[in-house]
Amino acid sequence: MLICHCNLITQKEIEEVIVELLEQDPWTLIVPAKVYHTLQKRGRCCGCFPNVVETIIRVTESYHSCSEASEGDVVSHLDRVRELRVQYGSRTHERRKAGHRAA
Ligand code: FES
Fold it and tell me: Which of 59, 79, 88, 94 would staple 18 via disulfide (CB 3.0–4.6 Å)?
């Protein structure tokens, strides 16, 4: 599935980069810019960033659910990762203002 239409990046490519970054450092805070930098791409309209954030959260949760780290450390780290929703918006938000209407 295509996540970024500007750069033609698929969900699978983004998931692979996230796992690669987590294998380098499991406690790194992955943000969309880090994913795009690794792919040697740049955010253009950045409309895909909320979906990228949701992918980062999902893959990071899945990655750490299999780790042997202490539960407290994992919960603390995942809280930091979930805070990205505040910074980049959620999947349903997609940079639209509350009063946005399509028609
Ligand atoms: S859709 Fe990803 S930068 Fe525009």
Answer: 59
Total domains in the fold of the chain: 1
Number of H helices, E strands in the chain: 5, 2
| Statement: residue 71 has pLDDT above 80 | no
On whether residue 80 sits in a domain, the answer given is yes
Residue in the structure block whose two tokens are 């996540």? 3
Q: Which of 5, 51, 55, 94 to mutate to test the pocket of ligand 1 (most atoms within 8 A of CB)?
A: 5
| Ligand 1 environment, Cβ below 6 A | 4-7, 43-48
**C-alpha–C-alpha distance, residues 69 and 96, integer Å:** 38
